[in-house]
Amino acid sequence: VGGAVADGIIEEAEILIIQNSINQLNKEKEDVDMIYNTLYNNNDVPTDIKRNLKTKYDEYVAIHRNLITFINNMVSDKVATEQEKANFNNLSSSYSTKLAEFKNAANIALVMANKNYTDTQFNVLDGKIEMRVTSQEVKGLINTNLEESKAYSDTLFQECQNQIDGVVETY
């Protein structure tokens, strides 16, 4: 945008270039919004990291809004004064800084989300490993259960046999 207003007079072709720059800034904001929403709504991002992410996001959104408003106001009369050019340069610089700060906060949030997710998965896996038993332990449990089942079956069989014998004797 700065190059489009170098001579201070904003012509129609320059307005198209500026409009394209605004569109690019808005597309960049859409990307930032998506990243922010994804990370902020992720349960694996710690609260303090989310708080910092939100602060950096809010600062970015504010400077984005200010920059777009400023550009639109600057081109409305098709003249860019030296003061407007200086203000634009300052806003552009602030925009770049706030975008970089947001990206840094987003990267930290992503790293923490990955770390917490990995830790959670490790704990789940660790719990599953602790629950595993050796094949020898399984065989021992099966043999014990088989012996108990056989003893129970033998008892039931004997009781049934006694009842049958009692019925036969009575008949």
Looking at this protein, list some descriptive labels.
171 residues, mainly alpha
Kindly state the percentage of residues in helix.
over 70%
Q: Which residues sit in consecutive blocks of at least 5 with pLDDT less than 50?
A: none
Mean pLDDT: 82
Q: Could you tell me the radius of gyration in angstroms? A: 37 Å
> How many strands appear in the DSSP assignment?
0
Q: What does the model show?
A:
This protein is mostly helical and 171 residues long. The chain is built from 4 helices and no strands. α1 (12-40) packs antiparallel against α2 (47-76). It is rod-shaped. 12% of the residues are buried. The mean pLDDT is 82.
Provide a short characterization of the protein structure.
By secondary structure, the chain is mainly α. 85% of the residues lie in helices and 0% in strands. Helix 1 (12-40) runs antiparallel to helix 2 (47-76), helix 1 (12-40) packs parallel to helix 3 and helix 2 runs antiparallel to helix 3.
